[in-house]
TrEMBL record:
GO biological process: anaerobic respiration; nitrate metabolic process
Gene Ontology cellular component list: cell envelope; membrane; nitrate reductase complex
Domain 4Fe-4S ferredoxin-type: 7-36, 182-213, 215-244
Protein name per the record: Putative Nitrate reductase beta chain
Record's compositionally biased regions (Basic and acidic residues): 535-548
Keywords: 4Fe-4S, Electron transport, Iron, Iron-sulfur, Metal-binding, Repeat, Transport
Location in or out of the cell: Cell envelope
Entry cofactors: [4Fe-4S] cluster; [3Fe-4S] cluster
Region (Disordered): 491-516, 528-548
Coiled-coil regions listed in the entry: none
Entries under NCBIfam families matching the protein: narH
């Protein structure tokens, strides 16, 4: 057993209202610059729908993720070394700008500078790539709120797979088609920071790597040569090509914030408070074996088997032996992510059939069944009604299974039954009715377990939703100084590698260290520590003097 730690995320889809606040704040923070106009590290998709880029889930076309060869071993779906070498200068398996969208702005000068006249001026759209007039045909959320539309349903690869797995019962297919016109839900997506990332294995130059200390997958911009194999290899299509710099870029899980204990920008600004961040301990020796599980429907359980119980004394000793810091082990014990994934088993992975072992999991949506029952005049939160209605959920179980469990309906039904049991049991508790202990027992849980899960999903405070250990100060300083060539951090006058006592004036708009030093970017850990103190202080008087 070789223990490693991973920062993971869980999103509760019952709470997502599709406001796109997470997308906008992420865009403003990380991709608001030339060459990244079309890039959304975080996007919110309406399901059913095509997704972003268009139909990214069709791996028969895009060749992302892993598959098993004849011997049962893992191989990249895009091909091995020889195929990669043969296509290194011309990779045809890439989404084009039309699959993403051609970003645009409007010619506002036509409005502000137009002379007086009888005609109304028009701000025509212009491409941000070419600067020429264009017709707007697609965008990252073009089918927003249109999940019930025929075009969105027909173009969704998961709808086709769910229907293909159906039996010959024509009635079931007709019912499915009927309520597909009315159901929809929102699916926020970021990079999965997988345990077995296909993008890392696809990179010919070794620029993509997975950090051993926290599992975050990053791109070394100095080593990236722009081969774009990582874009093909990623089945979630969350690696993007910056056409200005010729480099690949992707979600960094806001690692400078995580290193000081702050959540990601998308989590911090989420209106619905649907995101949870925490540490998961896993056995690195089991990763390849789990990803090579022959039956796709067993991949969910196989990945659960990779995770380790942080309360187990043997696991704790092994983690200390393998260099996992003590505060990380303690953070894993209080991790909301581990609780939702392994303890309560209500969170599910996105597309485990890609065999990348994703680490952003989702609590499937239950709300429509409650609303549907209430609309028929029945009690929408009564245990008997809820359990009976799950198999006729307006969001079909088969569709959710194609998203989260490679087509296996069982785990999806089990997760929804636990959520239904929680709603029914806690309604009785909150109304002062006698506790019905048969409801938790029906889903294999105890009343205390149900109440703990309810607190986490419904009432959890900031520090309970984000249990993030901070990076060691020494490591943070070392990482910061490594950005400067030959810098050894010795601040004695005349010392080798000594830097100027103060950064150049006007180095950046957000403090002296927010810009560059001799053209090189600095990630200043102290600034993020100060930001954390400012954000978490109750009032101005409570903030440290040096931050005011």
């Amino acid at each position: 057993m070789r223990v490693l730690a991973q920062i993971a995320m869980v999103m509760n889809l019952d709470k997502c209202i599709g406001c796109h606040t997470c997308s906008v704040t992420c865009k403003q923070t990380w991709t608001n610059r030339s060459g990244m106009e079309y890039v959304w590290f975080n996007n919110v998709e309406t399901r059913p729908g095509q997704g972003y880029p268009r139909r990214y889930e069709d791996q028969e076309k895009w060749r992302g993720g892993w598959e098993l060869n004849r011997r049962g071993a893992l191989k990249l779906k895009s091909g091995g070394r020889f195929r990669s070498l043969a296509t290194i200068f011309s990779n045809p398996v890439l989404p084009g700008i039309k699959d993403y969208y051609e970003p645009w702005t409007y010619e506002y000068k036509n409005l502000t500078d137009a002379p007086l006249g009888d005609d109304y001026p028009v701000a025509e759209p212009r491409s941000l790539l070419t600067g020429k007039p264009m017709k707007i045909e697609w965008s990252s959320n073009w089918d927003d709120n249109l999940g019930g539309g025929p075009a969105g349903v027909e173009a969704d690869p998961m709808v086709a797979k769910a229907q293909a797995r159906e039996t010959a019962d024509r009635a079931a297919v007709q019912v499915k088609a009927a309520f597909e016109q009315t159901f929809m839900f929102y699916l926020p997506r970021i990079c999965e920071h997988c345990l077995n990332p296909a993008c890392v294995a696809s990179c010919p130059s070794g620029a993509m790597y997975k950090r051993t200390e926290d599992g975050i997958v990053l791109v070394d911009q100095d080593r990236c040569r722009g081969w774009r194999k990582c874009v093909t290899g990623c089945p979630y299509k969350k690696v993007y090509f910056n056409h200005r710099t010729g480099k690949a870029e992707k979600c960094t899980l806001c690692y400078p914030r995580l290193e000081v204990g702050l959540p990601t920008v998308c989590s911090e600004t989420c209106v619905g408070r649907l995101r949870y961040l925490g540490v998961v301990l896993y056995d690195a020796d089991k990763v390849t074996r789990a990803a090579a599980t022959p039956d796709e429907k067993d991949l969910y359980e196989a990945q659960l088997g990779v995770f380790l119980d942080p309360a187990d004394p043997e696991v704790r000793r092994a983690a200390e032996r393998d260099g996992v810091p003590y505060d990380w082990i303690e953070a894993a014990r209080g991790s909301p992510v581990y609780a939702l994934i392994s303890t309560y088993r209500v969170a599910l992975p996105l597309h485990p059939e890609y065999r990348t072992l994703p680490m952003v999991w989702y609590v499937p949506p239950l709300s429509p069944v409650v609303e549907a029952l209430t609309g028929t005049g029945h009690d929408g939160e009564d245990a008997g009604n809820l359990f009976g209605a799950i198999d006729t959920l307006r969001i079909p179980l088969e569709y959710l299974a194609e998203l989260f469990t490679a087509g296996d309906v069982g785990p999806v039904r089990a997760a929804l039954e636990r959520l239904a049991a929680m709603r029914s049991y806690m309604r009785g508790v909150n109304l002062g009715d006698p506790a019905d202990r048969s409801v938790p027992a029906r889903v294999g849980m105890t009343p205390d377990g149900i109440e703990d899960m309810y607190r986490l999903l419904a009432l959890a405070k900031y520090e309970e939703r984000y249990v993030i250990p901070t990076a060691a100060l020494g490591d943070a300083r070392r990482l910061e100084e490594s950005a400067v060539p030959d810098g050894c951090g010795l601040d004695a006058p005349g010392g080798p590698g000594m830097l100027p006592p103060e950064p150049p004036p006007g180095a950046g708009p957000f403090g002296d260290d927010s810009g560059t030093y001799e053209g090189l970017p600095l990630v200043t850990i102290e600034n993020f520590h100060a930001s954390r103190r400012r954000q978490t202080a109750d009032d101005i008087a409570a903030r440290p003097e040096e931050d005011l």
